[in-house]
Specification:
The complex is a heterodimer of chains A (321) and B (677). Chain A has ten helices and 13 strands. Chain A has one domain: Thiamin diphosphate (ThDP)-binding fold, Pyr/PP domains (Rossmann fold), CATH 3.40.50. By secondary structure, chain A is of the alpha/beta class. In chain A, helix 8 links the parallel strand 12 and strand 13. Chain B is α/β, with parallel strands linked by helices. Chain B folds into four domains: 234 residues, 3-Layer(aba) Sandwich (Pyruvate-ferredoxin Oxidoreductase, domain 3), CATH 3.40.920.10; 181 residues, Thiamin diphosphate (ThDP)-binding fold, Pyr/PP domains (Rossmann fold, 3-Layer(aba) Sandwich), CATH 3.40.50.970; 80 residues, no CATH class; 147 residues, 3-Layer(aba) Sandwich (Rossmann fold), CATH 3.40.50.920. Chain B is built from 24 helices and 24 strands. Chain B has an eight-stranded mixed sheet, with helices on both faces. In chain B, strands 11-8-12-13-15-14-21 form a seven-stranded mixed sheet, with helices on both faces. In chain B, helix 1 packs across helix 8 and helix 13 runs parallel beside helix 14. Chain B is globular, with a radius of gyration of 28 Å. Chain B starts with 6 loop residues before the first strand and ends with a strand. Classes of the chains: A alpha/beta (321), B alpha/beta (677). The interface between A and B is large, with 68 and 85 residues. Strand 2 of chain A pairs parallel with strand 17 of chain B.
Chain lengths: 321, 677
């Protein structure tokens, strides 16, 4: 069946603030699913808690709005039980890098084929603007009583050292580019991480839309205006690992790139490695029909309702004679 | 009070990592192969190497379900085991020991705990013996304990000459098989059965098996040469050898629940390493390829997660795809799971948590027994949602219960906590092989097939996962079902699963979910809620009725005690009930069973005198948590609480003694049991 873009939308009232960066991400996700011709019922979007957590309710796929910080284990459980599903996970920076950082790091060790998008705005919006793990040290957004006393996490670098195999960044007001970054992440076989710069118009009065879309002047030629946000691929950067030897070198390069902030901020693909086996492949090597007969699709009872299993061998092992 | 006459109690101890486990395994296997019934339990410290651990085995020509405190045969390699356990050796019992350790000073045993030191000091002082190993040996001689010396170093040297292998370091490891062979020799045990027991333990290591068999035979004849006549009370062992029926299995608690999971169709399990729950997942993962009746291979995916929060949330994520999913844990891990349990509750997700209790709070006694998590399991998580808390009384039950609890989770679409514990997990029994082929898998209202027929397109006709109707249980579809798109949220939700704060919808959804509690009580068969474990029909005109109520693994020791008491005493009637369904609590059913019994006694008694009823509640915690539930849910008043919280399971010995004291009106209201090493 042919689906329209509208088939990926729901009539649920969207209560995000006017001008919220989340709208761009929502649109980019819906467009990505539509353009990749994924049937709505074959996809499931999992989310954490916060404004971003409401995303699944606005998308007409299976939508699982989970607990604060726990979106990744929920999503991984579903994917491993039924690897035929297309699974996306979304959440805020506080959700994924604060309360959920243990899951972020450990998901990297598994490399399960899901796509994780962080809505990164530097603040806890729904609880009215506290500093999140990505807000820089010393920043004082308008709702903070004092400047931020904690240093910030670098999500791209953390993804690099944790083992994510597709690591990219997008900007929520550049939907066209963001959509391509997301599509590539969905198509990537393995764990994808997309850090989306997403201004919070209500609580973050520092990293605003205007700030992200500002320019600096070229030192040598002041008539040249240099945009703060630039695309990695347009400046000759290539983070794709083509052979195993390249991998560690490319991770170091990606981490170096991820340090760029303030005057210039890169978006696009920092790192991609298709050589690392997915967790599903690792399971397949132990269970030879794992992908065709995964946990969710197994027949556990016969037509009489009796167990479809024979454990006689295991019981025999316990026999005293 | 000596009550182990009909059975033999054998204890082997030593420093952790010294091979106590493999020796006890061989012993258990050999004994069970001879047709005897066995019960074994393992006690160990939270430590890798060096601290004292021991294994006690009780075996009999009749069913045994629990340990006793007395010891008939004590097998030791080191001084510490003698100090800790010899006070429990019975008169005429046997100590197998290394004469070389007698020179060791008790003060130099750094791993010895205060209780054991105090106990032995007290005994030695009262018998005017010196505070030393030599003093202990003398005291044992006075009590007519038979001393069997096994000079390990000398024996190993002799043995290594005999087999022409002088690599002593390798041979040093065979001390445990030597001690085991010695204990079989004093029983005049069948040698081929002993050899088979050894081979069964080292199936994949034929060379080691061969060496061990030789060492065992060598030691067996060494002991036989000097050992006199077999003590009379051991003779039944020789008689029964090879004659009993061979259709039994020997199963550990940490095998039966995962076996039940395979049969129940659990195909996804998560865990974070924790004693005593991990063994369950390891057994499942070791046997993850499953033979199906339709000739396909099934499989169970077992995932070790980064923490228990990931463990439960991953299992919930899996359950949403329709698979029967489970997570296994113990107290500290379950504490972390509380929030996610509520998520499964509000989203009506069938989920099983196998909760292997150990002594808390916090890390507590990480490798020891307690039933301290009952009220927590019932109340874990904020807010109100229905959950089933179900417990198993013994190893055999835990197999069948595992299939039941998965059915409950599916039928009622709600989380189920299956209460197990360290004692059950680390004990081993002979029982009948599991009859699983005719068990029923009941999946409740879940869509079978992969798409929903839908009348017309449009959102008003959208699938309603949480449809409000007369039945609080709505149709559940797996993720991926065509036309079955639904939403889940930890927020209150509408019929499709979208967030709502509408007060009316809130009322409907609360009533939908929480009315399941009544449904659960009505639909689960009564005999699955409370089991009548023991009821005697005395011929005497007894006016006394003792009602015993327990939950979980204290069952074996209670049953063994009741059988023993009623052998000689028919002046009292017993009604022993095990509560299996602990939430929602079957209060009315409990009252009915007790009242019916009292009525029956009245009607069989022509005189209209009243029946004296004594209610005794037995459980392994301080607060008497079951009694709290009974008080909340019934008008039943307890007369005695038999409790224990020293981390060691209740023994047959102490329950027997406590019940006798109650019968003789010599008991406190609260009886605190304190035995165990």
């Amino acid at each position: 069946m042919e689906y329209k873009l509208a088939d990926f939308k729901t009539p649920v009232h969207n209560d995000w603030c006017a001008g919220c960066g989340d709208f761009g991400i929502l649109n980019a996700i819906q467009m990505s699913l539509y353009e990749l011709k994924i049937s709505p019922h074959q996809a499931a979007i999992f989310s954490g808690i916060g404004c971003s957590g409401k995303t699944p309710h606005f998308i007409n796929t299976f939508g699982i709005h989970t607990l604060h910080g726990r979106v990744l284990p929920f999503a991984q459980g579903a994917k491993l039980a039924n690897p035929n599903l297309k699974i996306l996970a979304v959440g805020g920076d506080g959700d994924g890098l604060g309360i959920g950082s243990g899951h972020f790091v450990n998901s990297g060790r598994r490399n399960i084929d899901i796509t994780y998008i962080i809505y990164n705005n530097g603040v806890y919006g729904l609880t009215k603007g506290q500093a999140s793990p990505t807000l820089k040290l010393g920043m004082k957004t308008k709702s903070l009583p004092q400047p931020n006393v904690n240093d910030s996490i670098n999500p791209i670098a953390l993804a690099c050292v944790s083992g994510f195999t597709y690591i990219a960044r997008g900007y929520s007001y550049d939907i066209k580019h963001l959509k391509e970054v997301i599509k590539r992440g969905i198509e990537h076989s393995g764990l994808s991480f997309i850090d989306v710069l997403q201004p919070c118009p209500t609580y973050n009065d520092i990293n605003t839309k205007e700030w992200y879309q500002s320019f600096s002047l070229d030192e040598n030629n002041p008539s040249i205006r240099i945009p703060k946000i630039y695309k990695l691929e347009e400046e000759g950067y290539n983070g794709v690992v083509d052979n195993d030897e390249e991998s560690s070198n490319k991770i170091i390069k990606a981490i170096e790139k991820s340090k760029e902030w303030e005057s210039r901020i890169p978006v696009g693909v920092f790192y991609e490695n298709k050589k690392t086996p997915t967790y599903e492949e690792r399971l397949q090597s132990r269970i030879d029909n794992y992908k065709t007969y995964p946990p969710a699709l197994q027949t556990i009872k016969d037509e009489n309702g009796n167990p479809n299993i024979n454990i006689d061998r295991l019981i025999d092992e316990l026999r005293t004679k | 009070m000596v009550i182990s006459r009909e059975s033999i109690s054998w204890v082997i101890g030593g420093p952790q990592g010294s091979g106590v486990d493999s020796a006890s395994h061989i012993f258990l296997k050999s004994i069970a192969m001879s047709g005897l019934n066995v019960f074994g339990k393992r006690e160990y410290h939270s430590n890798i190497k060096g601290e004292h651990s021991y294994f006690s085995v009780r075996f009999s020509n009749q069913i045994v379900r629990s340990p006793v405190d007395d010891i008939d045969i004590l097998v030791t390699f080191d001084a510490e085991t003698i100090v800790r356990h010899s006070p429990f050796l019975l008169e005429g019992g046997i100590l197998i020991y290394d004469p070389d350790v007698v020179g060791k000073k008790i003060e130099d045993i750094h791993t010895l705990d205060k209780s054991s030191e105090k106990r032995i000091a007290h005994i030695l002082k009262s018998k005017n013996k010196e505070f030393s190993l030599a003093g202990i040996i003398e005291e044992l001689k006075e009590r007519k304990v038979i001393l069997v010396e096994l000079p390990y170093t000398k024996l190993i040297n002799k043995f290594s000459e005999e087999i022409q292998d002088h690599s002593i370091s390798k041979l040093a490891r065979i001390t445990n098989v030597m001690s085991l062979a010695a204990s079989l020799a004093v029983l005049d045990f069948d040698i081929p059965l002993m050899e088979q027991g050894i081979q069964d333990t080292f199936t994949n290591k034929p060379k080691i098996a061969e060496l061990n068999v030789k060492a065992a035979n060598f030691t067996y004849s060494y002991v036989k040469e000097s050992f006199g006549a077999i003590p009379e009370k051991f003779l039944f062992v020789t008689k029964i050898q090879n004659e009993a029926n061979s259709n039994s299995i020997i199963a550990q608690g940490n095998q039966t629940s995962p076996l039940g999971k395979m049969v129940a169709g659990c195909r996804f399990q998560t865990y974070y390493p924790i004693t005593p729950a991990t063994d369950d997942s390891e057994y499942l993962e070791s046997n993850q390829i499953l033979e199906q009746n339709d000739k396909n291979n099934g499989s169970v995916v077992v995932i070790q997660t980064e923490d228990e929060i990931a463990a439960i949330t991953m299992a919930i994520g899996a359950a949403l795809t329709g698979v029967r999913a489970c997570t296994t844990t113990s107290g500290p891990g379950f504490s972390l799971m509380a929030e996610a349990l509520g998520w499964a509750g509000i989203n009506e997700v069938p989920l099983l948590v196998s909760l292997y209790q150990r002594a808390g709070p916090s890390t507590g006694l990480p490798t020891r027994q307690e039933q301290g998590d009952l009220l927590f399991a019932i109340n874990a998580g904020h807010g109100e949602f229905p959950r089933i808390v179900y417990s198993s009384g013994d190893i055999e039950e835990s197999f069948y219960d595992t299939i039941r609890v998965f059915n409950y989770a599916d039928i009622f679409q709600t989380p189920v906590i299956h209460m197990l514990d360290k004692y059950l997990s680390n004990s081993i029994i002979t029982c009948n092989p599991f009859e699983y082929k005719n068990l029923k898998i009941e999946r409740g209202k879940i869509l079978e097939g992969n798409s929903i027929e839908i009348k017309q397109q449009g959102f008003s006709d959208h699938f309603k996962r949480f449809e409000l109707s007369d039945d609080p249980i709505s149709l559940r579809v797996p993720l991926g079902t065509e036309n079955g798109i639904f939403w889940n949220t930890g927020d209150e939700h509408d019929e499709m699963g979208h967030i709502t704060e509408d007060p009316e919808t809130r009322i409907s959804m609360m009533e939908k979910r929480l009315s399941k509690l009544e449904l659960i009580q009505n639909r689960i068969p009564k005999e699955e809620q409370i089991t009548i474990e023991f009821e005697n029909n005395t011929s005497s005109k007894s006016k006394k009725l003792m009602v015993i109520v327990s939950w979980g693994s204290t069952k074996g020791a209670i049953l063994d005690s009741l059988e023993k008491i009623t052998e000689t005493d028919d002046t009292i009637q017993f009604l022993y009930l095990q509560i299996k369904l602990l939430n929602p609590f079957p209060g009315k059913l409990l009252e009915d069973i007790v009242n019916n019994k009292i009525e029956k006694l009245h009607s069989s008694d022509n005189t209209s005198s009243t029946i004296e009823t004594i209610v005794t509640i037995i459980e392994m915690n301080y607060l008497s948590q079951l009694d709290v539930l009974i008080k909340q849910n019934t008008t039943l008043q307890s007369d005695h609480n038999i409790l224990k919280y020293n981390g060691r399971p209740m023994s047959h010995t102490e329950i027997y003694n406590s019940l006798i004291n109650i019968i003789n009106n010599q008991s406190e209201r609260r009886v605190i049991l304190k035995n165990g090493v």
